[in-house]
Amino acid sequence: MNKNIRNFCIIAHIDHGKSTLADRMLELTQTISEKEMKAQVLDNMDLERERGITIKAHAIRMNYKATDGQIYEFNLIDTPGHVDFTYEVSRSLAACEGAVLIIDASQGVEAQTIGNLLLAMENDLTIIPIINKIDLPNAQIDETKQQIIDLLGIDERDIIAASAKQGIGVIEILEAIVNRIPPPTGDVSSPLKALVFDSSFDAYRGAVPLIRVVDGVIKPRMRIKFFAEKGTYEVDEVGLLRLQRRPARELRAGEVGYVIGSFKEIGNAKVGDTITDVDNPASEPLPGYRDVKPMVFSGIYPINSDNYENLKLALEKLKLNDASLIYEPEMSNALGFGFRCGFLGLLHLEIIQERIRREYNIDIISTVPNVGYQVIMKDDRELIDIDNPGQLPNVGDIDHIKEPFIKAQLLTPSEYVGQIMQLCQDRRGVYREMYYIDQTSQNHRGVNLHYELPLSEVVFNFYDKLKSVSRGYASFDYDFLEYRKSNLVKLDIMINGNVVDALSVITHRDRAYKWGRDLTDKLRKIIPRQMFEVAIQAAIGTRIIARESIRPLRKNVTAKCYGGDITRKRKLLERQKEGKKRMKQVGNVEIPQEAFMSVLSVER
């Protein structure tokens, strides 16, 4: 019966105790035995455990016997907590009727908490606010309660104080899920509508979409189709989500589970798509689907060129479980053969790189992360999308360039507002508004800043700078806004007259001179001295804007020339000079890997 089903998710900022609370719920509902229990049981990647973050959304079914004596079916849909995965979070929320909102008592409300809370409210979910980690010595329970009351406009009695680690308050949370979250609505007799809220890849079964059945019934041997992907497939198996997949006879309206069919690639079952019956189709899909487009691009190259095929295989395997990763082969004069990859954000990029190193044991080097640009041509006003500075057309043919802007939300203690506003101004930010999220003057938290920022300024050490100026207290969340016209130029770095394509960047004209000067200075210290002079130049088109020289190593050719006329020594020195000139014409400068990484540490 639908009235005993509760579909809910847990939303929180990174490291506020989401995975720990999920662990306690699994224990109390006896979904897993003590032998199977381990910390962050739903986080099955080592990387997730180490960093304390959820990278991939998870779902699990629990049966809970409530105090009213009835057994309730809980479907917990765990969501990623990071801003890079906002779309995944939004689809997971769309599969629920309620959300457990966790706020750390020692850290209070943070930017991603508000970001995910707004997503939950857009989906009209019932919110159950939880203050977690009340057992910590630095817990500020009263202040955090006040923040939640100001944020949600609710009664203090609706807030549950808990410690997921100690198991305090978890029973109260489970009872609140039963009493406050409504059961799912849906008509079993209507045409099938099922939302794909996540998708994974099984080496033996192919793509395995996780679904929430909104209307109708899905069962084996049915012929189904996806609205966005258009393909028609036969269902082989449906089932429930425990720690492992459990086959079932059918999934009915309101239930959460998985479906396996003749679709083999994860691209067939895109997150947010709607499944319907071929023989009795729904008239329209569920709302909210969109194609996920990468926002950050970087070149990934194997350090050893023999590993190119292994890197290709690694990316193919990662793509099977991550439809948002895109890549294509590319060739760099400086780094050889590699791949141009598109990511949802910087954390996504970092995770993929780390997984390539760990899971596939490939040493890689990556180029400076950059964003996608829109180039408007002069003649036919054609719009060209580029994700690599090397793709930029001839400057004379370009009318203007547009870059992506984001709508940023920054939460900070009031004492750091000045430094953060200065940071945003330095990054070409446009101020929009500022307000306090609590009324208590003694509370050191509470200023919510809204800025519009170019994404290119954010992908480049913005988060590190933000943590530095706020001593780690400020938090940051953003959404894509639009493409805007900007005064952008391509800055090339040349070594002895040859352009090093892997060091090229697209930057704002006002920043180009400082960027070029700082980068040439840094490269001068990193590139080893040669037997000839090495010129390092920064150029915009044909105009050189900065130059540094690396002095040559000099062999003492006159060391064995004892006595005699001075012309003997001059002759040897002249011969050395001629040799150096000839060497400079044919000699190649070996650029160390640190040179490519040094771009990331240049002050912007």
Brief sketch in words of this structure:
This protein is α+β, with helices and mostly antiparallel strands. It is built from 14 helices and 31 strands. The chain folds into five domains: 2-180, P-loop containing nucleotide triphosphate hydrolases (Rossmann fold, 3-Layer(aba) Sandwich); 193-277, Translation factors (Elongation Factor Tu (Ef-tu), domain 3, Beta Barrel), CATH 2.40.30; 296-367, 2-Layer Sandwich (Alpha-Beta Plaits), CATH 3.30.70; 374-486, Alpha-Beta Plaits, CATH 3.30.70; 490-601, Alpha-Beta Plaits.
Write structural notes for this entry.
The protein has 604 residues and is α+β, with helices and mostly antiparallel strands. The protein folds into five domains: 2-180, 3-Layer(aba) Sandwich (Rossmann fold), CATH 3.40.50; 193-277, Translation factors (Elongation Factor Tu (Ef-tu), domain 3); 296-367, Alpha-Beta Plaits, CATH 3.30.70; 374-486, 2-Layer Sandwich (Alpha-Beta Plaits); 490-601, Alpha-Beta Plaits (2-Layer Sandwich), CATH 3.30.70. Helix content is 26%, strand content 33%. The chain has 14 helices and 31 strands. The strands form six sheets. The chain has a six-stranded mixed β-sheet, sandwiched between helices. A hairpin with a 3-residue loop joins β17 (326-332) and β18. The longest helix is centred in the C-terminal third of the chain and has 21 residues, at 566-586. The protein is elongated, with a radius of gyration of 29 Å. 42% of the residues are buried. Mean pLDDT is 80; it is low at 440-444.
